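Weekly structure sync, notes
Attendees: PL (lead), two postdocs, one rotation student
Agenda item 3: pending single-chain targets
PL asked that the sequence for the first pending target be pasted directly into the notes so everyone works from the same version. It is reproduced below exactly as submitted, 90 residues in total.
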Amino acid sequence: MVEYLFSCGPVLSNAMGSSPLCHQEIRAWLKNMRLKLCPWEINALREMSRQYLYQLVQSENEDTPPPWVPEIDEVAGKQIVSKVKDILRG
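Predicted structure, written out during the meeting:
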């Protein structure tokens, strides 16, 4: 479902900002991808989109992480591992 969410959206951008995925967008995406989903799956996509947008708005506050994880290259990954080890050692 998460792969579907990111393939489909995960949110809509418009002149007023962002909004959750709507039924029309999901229907168009399903038609383009030649997929069929059950009603509960469509509802789940819409709810995931709403929650993603909520977290995106909340993450404008510095204390709240964004709803995505940036891609980490090998050097940054090693730095993160080192920092976590330092934190766990005390």
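Discussion points:
- The chain has a mean pLDDT of 88.
- The chain has one domain: 2-89.
Action: rotation student to compare against the earlier draft before next sync.
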